[in-house]
Amino acid sequence: MRLKKTETLELKKSTSELKEAVAAIGAMLNKHGRGEIYFGVKDDGLIVGQQLGKNTAGDISRAISAHLEPEISPEIKRININGKECIKVTFRGHEKPYYAYGRVYLRGADENKRLSPAEIKNLILYEHKEALRWDTEPCAEAKVADISAQKLRQFLKTAGLKYDNTRNALLKLKLVRQARPLNAAVVLFARSPQVFYPNVKLRCALFSGADTAVILDRKEFEGDVFFLIVKAEAYILEHINLGMRVDGLQRVDVPEIAREAFREDVINAFCHRDWREYDSVNVAVFADRVEIRSPGLLYNGLTVARITAEMVSERRNELLAEMLQRVRFVEKWGRGIKLILSKEPGTVFKEIGNHFIAVFKRGAAATLPPTVRQKSKEKSKEKILAIIVKRPVVTTGELARLTTLSLGGVEKIIRGLKKKGALRRVGPDKGGHWEVL
User: H helices of 84-215, where?
Assistant: First the structure.
């Protein structure tokens, strides 16, 4: 018989390595909640035996009791392997984290890694994640009456479910406890979610260059998560370049960044963000890139390398993700990163400060033939003219709100249209109207 070290099996030549053995016990408990240690077996599995005295087992038990917290009750046995006396220690425990000599270790392969304070914090959060999930906590200040019946009715219709009343709908979706809507219900269906959580917000900005020195436009939106997702997608489409292709007899707009890619990341930004952080989701459009910034780093010890290489995901807000999945906003199996990279292989993910950031490179539309290229400025002109045709008395302020452009941007476009003879003002500023020529 020859033993081999694993994530749940440690080998020690003798009790002279007792301190290292206690560290290994803590590491295995923190990783798997169980493990075994053999004394009298070398690292390579060679059975050498352990010299046993009448106090050997007691010494092992006392060392574990004195230097491992919380306490455990290991089983310590004398066993014979290949004719040689050894000691086998079997243990279990589920009160993570376990501290060995005041330090926390985690088993990886057959080694024990000492954890940093940040890693210990993540371990504690993971062990208590169900109790600590923000989206499943009742909102202390919200009532069922604060939930919009119209929003719930539309959601249930899309999800293929029936609506009878708000309370029953919340119960059916498991979005209420102790007569209080859960936080997930508030950010999705409240009439005014920002009344309860001011960070249910979207900030968008357009910059003239590759840095934040000169800002051309800035918008802030408040509302439920579905509304904010739509606004973020619309803002990006409004401020990036569009090409086109012909599909049969139809002209199809082609954004320079694949719409499926940045929409998926916008949804992820709201779905997986850390809602305990006060900041909002931010969209920044630069001359060379678009950045989508979400408060909170990757969850449960994930790294950028792992999510891009292994396409794995850990959901910080399981209930919120489930609601979005019911209306097909997110994939149940967490294939979002794979989708983004399949549509935009040059996408870069990074963590800066306390934000997770996705960076989409711009410029793909520039490769389209000039005859089919259409800039976002032209699209804005079309929108403004379409609104004026329907409502000639519209004001520039209303145009700015309806198109999500800045007031200065609207006025600049109108000046250009008037100069080209495409638009004129009839009557005074107040009481007059526009006429499209």
Answer: 117-127, 129-132, 149-159, 166-172, 183-189
